Amino acid sequence: MAEVTSTRRESPPSMIERMTLILDAFSGPSARLTLEDVARRTGLPRSTAHRILDQLVRQRWLAHHSFGYGLGQRALGLGGQDGGHGKIREAAAPMLHQLQVTTGLVAHLAVLDGAEVFYLDKLGGRLATSVPSRVGGRVPAHGTALGKAMLAWLEPEQVDVLLGGEISRFTSRTIGELGTLHQELHRIRQRRGLAFERGESFPGIACVAAAIRGAEGPVAGISLVGDIHTPLENVAPLVVTAAREASQVLFPGQAAVRRRPPRASAVPRARRPQPGGAEEDATWSPETMNRLMAVDSRGDWM
Q1: How far is Cα 99 from Cα 159, in angstroms, rounded to an integer?
Q2: Residue 37: which domain range?
Q3: CA distance 226 to 106
Q4: What residues are paired with 217 via a beta bridge?
Q5: Residue 47: CB partners within 8 Å, gap ≥ 6?
Q6: What pLDDT, in 10s, does the model give residues 191-241?
Q7: Is the pTM of this model over 0.70?
């Protein structure tokens, strides 16, 4: 009888028990585990753990990131959590307010949810009604500066998985091919994370964005939005500074930690992190801004 009990403990007979073991392995909403971590903590065979993890991801109990598995929207919802959205909004609120007051443009805060951008906050005064976005709304990530700013810090394979292998156009300016999108994400990394779009999501709307990042990758994005003629190059450094400050508020113990960019770093040599994790000042000279904001022959942002 003792042997039977021991066997049952080592290999739960029901799928529900196995799923519960796996979900219990995650210590909190921010926990990230690899397949090996899950197998070790649950005592399940690796192949069994992998099969159940895939099923939990498909049902959104878990989320699969390039840096491991984490609790998904369903699991977080059952625990009264919001996926950390409340914490992100609280951390970014002062920066978002300052951006809007300083520039007079519409400021957004959003997170990446699969292939979509999910808006957490929007500040904009009189201009807000002219921008077709709303808190709680969703738009395809590849057609927005916010989405591209976050996608740029994922591995290319993860981007392909999130977008499902193909992307669609919404306007004549939307990137409609994955190869072209990957080229754009590479250019965003070269610009130290600055992403732009002009009329890619909605005609007549322009946007500049940067990602809020932790040691494990992007967690949210901040953007400023204006009409198609807005000189966004003038406010781009403010967006980068706001995103960096929000990152420091969210991850104070990881301020000096920098996750290696996807593939080899394409950050300009003069702007690489310094020894010990310190980074050069984010203020750019007019000459540097001119190089970063170069416009191609079609008049589009790089």
Answers
A1: 29
A2: 2-78
A3: 7
A4: 214
A5: none
A6: 889 999 988 888 888 999 999 988 778 889 999 998 888 888 889 999 999
A7: no
